[in-house]
Amino acid sequence: MHCNCSYSDKNIFLPKETEILKVEQPTELEKHFTLKMKDGATMAFAPGQILEVSLFGYGEIPIGFASSPTRKDSFDIVVRSVGRVSKAINKLEKGQSVFVRGPLGSGFDLDKLRGHDVLIIAGGIGLCPTRSLIQYIMDRRSEFKKFTLFYGAKDPSQQLFLSDLANWRKSNDVDYYETVDKGDEKWTGNVGVITTLFKKTQISPDTRAVICGPPVMFKFVIAELDKVGIPRSNVYVDLERRMKCGVGKCGHCQINDKYVCVDGPVFSYADIEHLEEAL
Amino acid sequence: MMNAYFITEKDFKNFVSAMVQSLTVIGPVAKRKKFVFAKLESAEDLRLDYDVTLLPPKKEFFPPSQDMVRFEKDKYEGCISPQEKILLGVHFYDIKAIDMTDRLFREKNEDWNYLANREAATIIGSNIQTISERAFWGTVGKDVPPKGHDGFITKINGGYVYETRGDKGEALVKFGSFAKATDAQVKEARAVNENVMGKCPEKLNRSSKEIAEKVRKAFSKEAFWEALAEDCFSCGSCNIVCPTCYCFDVQDNWNLDQVSGARTRYWDACLTEDFAKVSLGGGATENFREERAERFRHRIMRKASYLNEKLGGPACVGCGRCSAACTSDIADPVNVINKIMEA
Fold first, then answer.
1. To probe the interface with B, which of A254, A260, A263, A274 has the most B CB atoms within 10 Å?
2. S-S: A133 plus which of A47, B233, B280, B283, CB 3.0-4.6 Å?
């Protein structure tokens, strides 16, 4: 290997090494990793930002932070086994290394949420990036008013962060509502799509709403938020796209004239509702 | 520093020879009936009478495949290693395109995998002596002047006027027997470059600003885009030959030893079917531009509208390469834009 070292600190594609402190497997497809920078540095990020996570010889994938920056010793990611890279990462064990570039993109503007009611609506794997914001709000609970969380999963076996869910069900700091598209013999909770949770509680029109989930979910949830009377400038969407490079160059994540990996992945809905390709 | 020099036809050949002997010089050379930018082995190779090259000169800074990180077991490092070279004989439309990719690779996150190659290059333009069949550079982005190059050569009676733009262009003067150009020679060169502008076979009839607005407003005319894209093979040739297209894919590859390898970027094309496709797990996928018409529209929007604010004009320079490369001849931006403007 020949290094032209005058450029080594200028290469935006050069990742940093992290050590896996802990691995959990919440579902059949997902692994939950707790990571620490190998050089001892603290990963400073905003909830909603992303990382390009990689394994040499396999490739890179964009993944949202699944823990809050208030928890400085380590950070979490959740990886769903879907392709070559994610399957290889999900074979890794505690003590092994995974490589990251980031934080990248634009996360939640916390100043816009502080001092207000916050409603988070997370569908499926959309709970992973929103968990960063959920933890943040729980860690600095006094900075926010009423905090409501809607979580929908396909079925009970697909639920993520089981110990978190157990805590949120009991906690006075969050009004937590959950649903599954399809129950099983043990499930006694709500069955139905995530919008069915809106009738379980009262949401104020002065709420800041955050949506993250599968692409199909957004339009239906926004219709409900419209009914509540929340202005679209107070609705934040955390979008999924093929963020291949993460630095606004490769073109794969483009929505009309925006690059999701640098202009987002978190957008105020008012800023993108005129973009035909957004939702 | 801007100076104008004159060199006779005969001395020009010696000038090119002298450069080829001591520098890496890339210029237009013949390849069967077409032209390509390639390393000059001798001054005779240089064909300043070319119409257009098959691929634009962007490949010199942004090669079709480029290693960005090399790894071996648990060690890895970047591999930015620029080679100094002279790009000789670049037409003004390609100079404009290079200036655009310069800005796009520099904005927000500076990509030195590109910028280092770019900074190591000296770009010398040349006037258009032969006009390609699909050219429309005379009427596209007229408010955007060519810039970022280091010098420009114009063929006039009896020789060439060489106008330098800064130190890199000035540094080449020592390779030839240049005299200071007279005002009349500079004027003649200017006239040569101005006269050619009206001679393109294809023309846009409206300003870039009018085009940008009306093309953007045509986004929702689904039937229009579907009709245009009906014969699209989703091959991406229009992207690959475009001097302002810079999308890429990134892949890791192992070397044969299976312990070392590289993370490499490759030119990619937004017209190809899986460009915006993501896996959702469990076999499910989401393709954010699933239809051919959506991808066809995306390219036109990028060329005529989306990037205009950033670039000060359209991300199209009128080279006509996409029109010539398209198997079913549906890619021509002039055809698409004029249809929208006339509607």
1. A254
2. A47
